[in-house]
């Protein structure tokens, strides 16, 4: 049994919400991002909405634009976005429903990436609470897990340093990494 | 309930014989006795450190106090198939457990498919037995069947859930490695999940079991077929708890932590996710996959802090007889003992019933009973008042199964709380249609029968057994037996018609699927 850790399925949550939430405000992060990241996000949102339609989900016409403004996706690296977009585009079967499909592709992205300097640094900074809360077995496992997030996103997550209460740390991760609002 | 018979030939040839040796849950608990804690398929996505490119060096001496004397031992990741890696990891385990002369066990790697084949072939294996053994085996099977049915009637398992196949399934899906004391061999299951760091820690965990075995003979710990579920869970928790504790020391070193983290806290923080994963499954089926590694580790760690390695070793000589002290030590060690209910008189079985066996489920299973059967009605601290239990089972050719679960508490108030709640539930046909509940002092008896006609005779028999020999004599087979409950009095057990059950709101769904369903509603 592995220990509790941020759940990959949260990505699916973000994806689901991105399909339907109306976004009121603009996003500063978006203006600063590179063209490459934007294109990757467009590809993912396109693939996500297409997959939802393919899986016979009710999807609004604003699916892609809402998805594009999901702050959760804004925190991803272009590589992570691309891997999931490719997975969604290539998986034509929808036997287990859209949620499973989205989840599976999110898992694939998480498995894909080696640790980065930024993710390793983040894990070193948060090592004690992450160890105590049992989110990961090891530093390198932690660093690999967070490699899907961009450096600015990880910096934001680092602001959780000093929190040792596991629930509070979970909430802090929610707020800084997994939050899907804008 | 899965039933196995012992066979020395069988035992000698396959590691799983140790794992599945013994009848009933002796077998099921033994499944996990020497196994590593892992293989969480549901979250495998997060285990993906197989492609880690960042080089983490471990040349620095470990500064953790728990590593004292082993500061310069290996504490990194390596390829567990590699002999050098195995030697280095074993050296660390040997140092931490202070066994300088220990011998490296054989390590083998098998595929998931090979594991499945081995487990399944063990499941179907039949051995030759003498007539005497056949009679004993038949009695074991009858006891096993009655117990399984009793657990179902008590709401602790679904029909067919406690089959041998179910245990094999749990084993296959959750065990990434195990040590067999029958062959002195560590088996690693080679699958995609888990990276080098996880696998290295798993190997270390199994090496600790090998060390325990060389030191104290692990096989002796679970050989007693008379051990109750509670006893066996406690013994398993010592074995796995120590392995998990030493694994956590190495993990902390691997993290590069400069000072001791809060180890105690780390052992149980992951329990909620384990329970989420096993949600809805019988505690008899899944408890062994997480309790020993969490509560067991916390208990052993307390002993280690107070008495060092010698104290931990002493636990193997005289393991606790219940997991009670492992549940009550939330802030530190507690001095609390469970009580044996073996001397309590059994009810005189109504005609047609023969006693099949007795079992001690323990405070953990009681906790799960409360969660599963009476979640809204009870103060959740009630399980902490548990002090002993005995589940007795009977069955007859035409009568089906009857069972009485006697639970003892440390206060009358706790017993009354359970009694009142369960009594209300029985009116609603819970935990099964013919259930009844009585209270006698700080003991509560929950009875279940497979047939409606057996309910009242059994309720009367239980009441008689608890209220004195005269009443008990009246309820003996052939004697005057009443189909109606006895008249309550101040001295006699409480068996009064229940009040109408209060209306209770059901808890909302907190599962991921539930949330997702709500979310879908929202976005449409």
Give an overview of the whole structure.
The complex is a heterodimer of chains A (182) and B (524). In chain A, helix 1 packs across helix 7, helix 3 packs parallel to helix 6 and helix 8 runs parallel beside helix 11. The termini of chain A are far apart. Chain A has one domain. Chain A has twelve helices and no strands. By secondary structure, chain A is mainly α. Chain B has 524 residues and is an alpha+beta fold. Chain B folds into two domains: 301 residues, no CATH class; 121 residues, no CATH class. Helix content of chain B is 46%, strand content 10%. Chain B is built from 19 helices and eight strands. In chain B, the strands form two sheets. A five-stranded antiparallel sheet of chain B has the order 4-5-6-8-7, sandwiched between helices. In chain B, a hairpin with a 4-residue loop joins strand 2 and strand 3. In chain B, helix 9 packs across helix 13.
Summarize the structure.
The complex is a heterodimer of chains A (182) and B (524). With 182 residues, chain A is mainly α. Chain A has 12 helices and no strands.
Derived from helix and strand composition plus strand pairing, the structural class of chain B reads alpha+beta
How many discrete domains of chain A?
1
The residue-averaged pLDDT of chain A reads: 79
For the record, give the distance between the C-alpha atoms at the N and C termini of chain B, rounded to a whole number.
45 Å
Look at the helices and sheets of chain A and give the structural class: mainly alpha
Average pLDDT metric of chain B: 79
What about the largest sheet of chain A? none
Element string of chain B (H = helix, E = strand):
HHHHEHHHEEHHHHHHHEHEEHEEHHH
How many helices of chain A?
A: 12
Rg calculated over all Cα atoms of chain B: 25 Å
Strand/helix succession of chain A:
HHHHHHHHHHHH
Q: Give, in spatial order, the strands making up the sheet with the most strands of chain B.
A: 4-5-6-8-7
Share of β-strand residues of chain B: 5-15%
Distance between the termini of chain A: 35 Å
- Shape, per Cα inertia axes of chain B: globular
Strand content of chain A: under 5%
Give the oligomeric state of the chains in this entry, treating copies of one chain as homo and distinct chains as hetero: heterodimer
Tally of DSSP β-strands of chain B: 8
């Amino acid at each position: 049994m592995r220990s509790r850790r941020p759940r990959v399925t949260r990505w699916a949550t973000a994806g689901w919400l991105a399909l339907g939430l109306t976004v009121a405000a603009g996003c500063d992060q978006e203006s600063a991002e590179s063209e490459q990241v934007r294109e990757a996000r467009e590809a993912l949102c396109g693939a996500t909405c297409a997959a939802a339609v393919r899986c016979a989900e009710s999807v609004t016409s604003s699916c892609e634009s809402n998805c594009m403004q999901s702050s959760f996706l804004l925190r991803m690296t272009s590589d992570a976005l691309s891997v999931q977009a490719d997975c969604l585009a290539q998986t034509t079967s929808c036997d287990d429903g859209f949620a499973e499909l989205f989840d599976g592709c999110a898992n694939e992205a998480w498995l894909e990436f080696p640790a980065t300097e930024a993710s390793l640094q983040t894990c070193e900074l948060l090592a004690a609470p992450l160890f105590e809360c049992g989110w990961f077995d090891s530093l390198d496992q932690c660093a690999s897990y967070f490699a899907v997030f961009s450096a600015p996103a990880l910096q934001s997550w680092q602001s959780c340093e000093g929190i040792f209460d596991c629930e509070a740390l979970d909430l802090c991760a929610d707020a800084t990494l997994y939050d899907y609002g804008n | 309930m899965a039933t196995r018979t012992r066979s020395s030939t069988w035992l000698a040839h396959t590691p799983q014989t140790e794992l599945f040796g013994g009848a009933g849950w002796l077998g099921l608990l033994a499944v996990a006795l020497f196994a590593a804690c892992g293989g969480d398929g549901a979250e495998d996505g997060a285990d993906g450190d197989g492609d880690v490119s960042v080089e983490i060096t471990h040349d620095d001496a470990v500064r953790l106090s728990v590593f004292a004397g082993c500061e310069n031992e290996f504490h990194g990741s390596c390829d567990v198939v590699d002999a050098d890696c195995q030697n280095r990891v074993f050296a660390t385990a040997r140092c931490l457990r202070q066994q300088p002369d220990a011998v490296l066990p054989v390590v083998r790697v098998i595929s998931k498919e090979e594991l499945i084949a081995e487990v399944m072939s063990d499941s179907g294996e039949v051995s030759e037995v003498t007539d005497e053994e056949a009679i004993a085996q038949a009695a074991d099977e009858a006891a096993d069947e009655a117990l399984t049915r009793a657990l179902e009637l008590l709401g602790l398992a679904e029909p067919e859930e406690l089959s041998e196949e179910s245990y094999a399934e749990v084993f296959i899906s959750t065990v990434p490695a195990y040590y067999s004391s029958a062959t002195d061999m560590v088996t690693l299951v080679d699958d995609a999940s888990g990276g080098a760091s996880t696998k290295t820690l798993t190997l270390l965990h199994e090496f600790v079991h090998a060390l325990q075995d060389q030191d104290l003979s692990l096989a002796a710990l679970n050989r007693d077929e008379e051990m109750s579920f509670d006893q066996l869970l406690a013994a398993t928790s010592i074995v796995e708890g120590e392995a998990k504790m030493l694994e956590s020391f190495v993990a902390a070193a691997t993290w590069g932590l400069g000072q001791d983290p809060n180890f105690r806290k780390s052992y149980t923080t992951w329990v909620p996710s384990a329970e989420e994963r096993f949600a809805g499954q019988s505690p008899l089926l899944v408890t062994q996959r997480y309790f020993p590694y969490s509560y067991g580790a916390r208990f052993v760690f307390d002993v280690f802090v107070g008495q060092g390695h010698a104290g931990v070793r002493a636990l193997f000589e005289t393991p606790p007889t219940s997991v009670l002290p492992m549940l009550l030590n939330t802030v530190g060690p507690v001095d609390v003992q469970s009580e044996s209910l073996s001397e309590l008189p059994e009810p005189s079985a109504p005609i047609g019933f023969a006693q099949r066996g007795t079992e001690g489920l323990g405070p953990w299973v009681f906790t799960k009973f409360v969660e599963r059967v009476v979640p809204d009605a009870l103060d959740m601290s009630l399980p902490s008042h548990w002090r002993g239990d005995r589940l007795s089972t009977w069955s007859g050719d035409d009568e089906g199964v009857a069972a009485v679960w006697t639970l003892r508490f440390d206060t009358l108030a706790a017993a009354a709380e359970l009694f009142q709640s369960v009594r209300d539930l029985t009116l609603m046909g819970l935990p099964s249609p013919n259930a009844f509940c009585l209270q006698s002092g700080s003991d509560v008896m929950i009875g279940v029968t497979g047939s409606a006609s057996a309910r009242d005779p059994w309720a009367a028999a239980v009441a008689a057994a608890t209220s004195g020999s005269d009443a008990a004599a009246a309820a003996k087979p052939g004697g005057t037996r009443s189909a109606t409950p006895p008249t309550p009095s101040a001295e006699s057990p409480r068996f009064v018609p229940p009040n109408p059950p209060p209306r209770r709101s059901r808890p909302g769904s907190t599962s991921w699927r539930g949330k997702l369903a709500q979310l879908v509603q929202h976005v449409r």
